[in-house]
Amino acid sequence: MNKEQFVAALGDKGIDLSETQIRQFDAYYHLLVEWNEKMNLTAITEEQEVYTKHFYDSVSAAFSFPFASIQTAADIGGGAGFPSIPLKICFPHVRFTVIDSLNKRMNFLAHVCNELGLENFSPVHARAEEAGQDKQLRESFDLVTARAVARLNVLAEYCLPFARVGGHFVAMKGAGGSLELQEAKKAIKVLGGKTEKVNTFELPDEAGERNIIVIHKEGATPKAYPRKPGVPAKKPLV
Fold this sequence. Notes:
Layout: H1 3-12, H2 19-36, H3 47-59, E1 72-76, H4 84-90, E2 95-100, H5 103-116, E3 121-125, H6 128-131, E4 141-147, H7 152-159, E5 163-173, H8 177-183, H9 185-190, E6 193-202, E7 209-217, H10 231-234
Parallel strand pairs: 1-2, 1-4, 2-3, 4-5
Antiparallel strand pairs: 5-7, 6-7
Helix pairs in contact: 1-3, 2-4, 2-5, 3-4
């Protein structure tokens, strides 16, 4: 989809972009392409594909979860800014923290925020397993998001420790989302979560199936989780 189709598609979902927000998306696209020549941010650089597969796909989390009702969000492993930057542009009141293990990408996000004039956006260079044990970050966010990071049973251990009790974790998955959810049932329960709903839809321009999995944080995550760096991926909770 082109820029105009993107704006119209979001409008159809009740997300009306101002001229400032439209300019921010345009500036973000050009920064993404510019910095992608210096570091590996994305394999997708053609403008219409970026608007469909990155921008629209990122904002689709808001089709299943009421971003207007939250104040704080953490995005885990989203070093290129997906879904955090598109969501921050659409919902500027949300205070975003992005946690990623690659410092170069955190520098990119800091530059994007400066250029776009985005406030209350904090890139944090850290492993999710270590940050999840940080008392300042642990169980302190209304919402935790993640897109294209790991299988859900591993991802739940990365993400649920950051959500406050009563908060939510929204996992953005592709066509295998339902299968991953079955595999992750034990992990979600052990970590204090309960699956609330799954929204399945097709991206525009035949860009593929998406599954937005909304998990409610019902109880505190046991102190043993997340385990040490590398352990969740090697020994997933099953």
